[in-house]
């Protein structure tokens, strides 16, 4: 829903009004008490508006909490226990006109190839391991193995060399001296970054609520105009709404923003919320050996923090300048006090011209949901735009709809993404069909690259993990002569929770330290690789002959 200030409803006056009305007509019109409250009889325009902001924000906050809880539930297995994932990529087909015979043979081989990726992740121990296998015509050709913890990275190709090549970050000084590369003291994980920036919802609410109340208190009845029974019609949904227009003169806007800025400068809780996350991230990166420049101390950060709001106060000063421009916000409110439409405009009273800055629509009508958010440059509304929209219909476990994302700059579309989807959820299984079209501007040649495609997927939750599969096809714009007509493939994945992870213990007998490798070891590697390569060619002679024949 709408992202608006968490304004608390001034309930006292509306409750008092309802008590008086209820006491006077309790016998004759008692049944209309709810209707009076629902349709906003006897309420001021300001009360109606602020109540809608509070109700809308409460619903938005509830939805965000629900989505965050779903995300945490999804990520919980990865954060608390080892996860093993096996992914297979097969049936890779590239449809293209290939004049070169050798390239054509390579594409035929790829069609008969299968890639198997085994991945093991243990966030608690900060360890990862796995391998990538290349299969051709049901035969495994080669494998790349790897492992990683917070200070050690290693790999090997067992078909060609028996030992691991590894790099220990404890040797970072030697690596810098030998290769000129500055490496960190340890590798970071998703869990490290998540914990550094994590913010509790209640903490944010408690900090922002006083600003919402300041905004509410600053509004005057003269700024607010109410129209009732205004027709609303968007994407097939028609209803009558209350339309509230809030107008800010330059003086009123300046006064409000100045109050907010002055309050923020003195707000230690707000400062601590922002600085603590900045400090968490910079300390994490610094302690892990990542090169950082210009890290601010708490005092320097506070100085910059205060200066930001000082600049804001200076920027919004009116200084007696005469201007006909005003800021208008138009919200449309349904019978349940939800804001379903919002526009922010810069208006010029002299020529009655209004330029749109922000537009949002958000409603749920039975099984239908629609959300649109659009940001526009009011100075050049035809040149700059960023818009996201979602439309969905959910019935009996099936959801279908569209998602789009559009960016325009200098009157030229930069990104245009459109997706239609249909998902079906039943018990532990979810199926999906996604058709997409993507257009992206290549800024080097100033031409659009266009592709379309389809993804058909299925995911099933099991007692120990998840199983999923997907078919993917991408079609390319034929105006590009060097591009294939299409690429398609199949993907299957299995996730297992709680499967123990082990990484090899490398030493001189099974590994080569790449930071201290010497000429003798280089010669040893070269000799073994040459022998292994000959063996590989002999074992796969039929394949080699097929590829090499004209």
Pick out its properties:
globular, alpha+beta, disordered N terminus, 2 domains, 20-stranded mixed beta sheet
Describe this structure in words.
- The chain has a 20-stranded mixed β-sheet.
- The protein has helices at 11-25, 33-38, 45-80, 101-111, 172-179, 190-197, 201-218, 250-265, 268-287, 298-315, 519-539, 541-548, and strands at residues 83-95, 113-122, 127-136, 139-148, 152-156, 164-168, 224-234, 237-248, 325-333, 339-348, 353-365, 368-376, 385-395, 398-409, 412-426, 429-442, 447-461, 465-476, 486-497, 511-513.
- The longest helix is centred in the N-terminal third of the chain and has 36 residues, at 45-80.
- It folds into two domains: 20-511, no CATH class; 518-548.
- Residues 1-42 have low confidence and may be disordered.
- With 550 residues, the chain is of the alpha+beta class.
- The protein has twelve helices and 20 strands.
